[in-house]
Description:
- This protein has helices at about 25-40, 75-85, 100-105, 105-125, 160-185, 205-215, 235-245, 265-285, 305, 325-330, 335-350; strands at about 20, 40-45, 65-70, 90, 130-135, 185-190, 195, 220-225, 230, 235, 255-260, 265, 300.
- The protein has about 350 residues and is of the alpha/beta class.
- The chain has a seven-stranded parallel beta sheet, with helices on both faces. A two-stranded parallel ribbon has the order 7-10.
Amino acid sequence: MTEHTLYHADIHTPVRQTYLVTGGAGFIGSHLVEMLLQQGHRVLVIDDLSTGLLENIVHLRQHPNFHFARASITNELVLDRLTSEADIVIHLAAAVGVKLIVENPVRTIETNIMGTEAVLRAAVRYGARVLVASTSEVYGKGTRIPFREDDDVVLGPTSRNRWGYAASKMLDEFLALAYYREQNLPVVLFRLFNTVGPRQRGQYGMVIPRFVQQALAGEPLTVYDDGEQSRCFLHVTDAVRAILALAERDEAIGQVFNIGATEEITIRGLAERVLAEVDTFYAAHPERSAPPRPAERLRFVSYAEAYHTPDFEDMRQRVPDISKIYQHTGWHPERSLKDILCSVVQHMAG
């Protein structure tokens, strides 16, 4: 599917199911909504646009099976009305991004915990299935690689804001599973690992769009610390396929699943790959003038400088074990890191 292209379901085709997507105007949410509409579902979206963008969904507004409500998930009246019409709720609305987490810890904790509680309460009233988005951050400072869903968790001290986000998402998981056990609410939890692709912004600390933006502008790429910390990056379309595969599996209810890629790369290596991909883009488009390159193409800064705090902690390595979701759904990533970088460069270059 090309950017901002949607193949509308036939208006006379019966709607398969009704989905409510919280945070549906966000990066992942908007891609999820597109795929649901392509599959013939009716889709309701609630988003207050605090981090999501109306431009992510504006091309969907005329679709006969799409409805958008600009409201917070803590608006009980709106959330109740939408949930009453939904068969399945996919709860993506959250405070995300390392920069946002560090700079706005109160907003992060309150949005995640209070928002998830509101969604679960509404779902119980109407018996909707709920899929709750969690994060690889919950693995904290774990050293067992790759991370498995049943691993023990080690977090840093409460004096460091970074761990408030991880703790809030852990509490979301505990709360959702409590509703499953005590209220028989059909709940599925999924932990996303570094999901990237078109429409993601670097504003809140996401590394790939930040690198691509700097490379396209001819600026040095800003690498935090020594750049030897490693991550695995998953294309958003692969993430959406995984989420929908879980939504359709009754045996997934009451369980937690990792969703991520396993192609590991250091952040320094990622920066070099981005520079190479941008060079390739300009070589393929000679009509566009490439900006002059600085003498030093990478600029290394400390975490203290990047996040304006002396006590920031990061994980050196983050790799998911995805055998569980494969066993339950057959899902595995289809797009490589090269595919990801190519799609992001093309999107951001316009």
